[in-house]
Amino acid sequence: MSNKTKIVVLHMKEMIYTLIFAGLALLLILLLVFMFLPRQKDRTAETMKYVAGVYTSTIQFNDNNIDVQVVVDESRISSVSLVNLDDTVATMYPLMQPAVENIADQIIEKQSTENISYSEENQYTSMVVLNAVNHALEKAAVQ
């Protein structure tokens, strides 16, 4: 039987240097990976739908202008209302205010102007108001 015993001598100093260089190489590889990977888009820009503020759109009935005011924050529609609605217009178009209130409730609930329902008796008024709200929301949209 020949048992040849091999003796390996490791110098502690060489082991420490090897471990340090291996650690530095690993750190360099991780640094390069993080530097050159494509970055994710800014998440706040993805969640922002609107530029916060108050936006108006004008509806013209005969010689009278009525402003539809839409208040939005970054991600949602807060309110829809009529501004500059004087008494003569309210008297001439009595379905205007109820139509706007109905549409405003639905828009705030759905956070969209899609699939808004309205009655047949004020369908044209509702369509005009919806177009004005869409125009104001186009102004508010993030570019």
Key features of this structure:
17% strand, Sufe protein. Chain: A, 48% helix, 143 residues
Question: What is the H/E string?
Answer: HHEEEHHH
> Any idea of the CATH class of the domain at 46-140?
Alpha Beta
Shape: rod-shaped
From the alpha carbons, calculate the radius of gyration and give it in angstroms.
Answer: 33 Å
CATH architecture of the domain at 46-140: Alpha-Beta Complex
Helix content: 40-55%
Instruction: Kindly report the CATH topology of the domain at 46-140.
Output: Sufe protein. Chain: A
Structural class: alpha+beta
If helices are DSSP runs of H or I spanning 4 or more residues, what is the number of helices? 5
Low-pLDDT stretches: none
Q: Approximately how much beta-strand content do the residues carry?
A: 15-25%
Give me the count of strands: 3
Sheet having the most strands: 3 strands, antiparallel
Determine the N-to-C terminus distance: 84 Å
3D structure, described in words:
With 143 residues, this protein is an alpha+beta fold. It has a domain at 46-140: Sufe protein. Chain: A (Alpha-Beta Complex). The protein is 48% helix and 17% strand. The protein has five helices and three strands, in the order ααβββααα. The chain has helices spanning 12-36, 43-47, 87-92, 96-110, 123-140, and strands spanning 53-61, 64-72, 77-83. A three-stranded antiparallel β-sheet has the order 1-2-3, with helices on one face. Strand 1 (53-61) and strand 2 form a beta hairpin. Helix 4 (96-110) crosses helix 5. The longest helix is centred in the N-terminal third of the chain and has 25 residues, at 12-36. The termini are far apart.
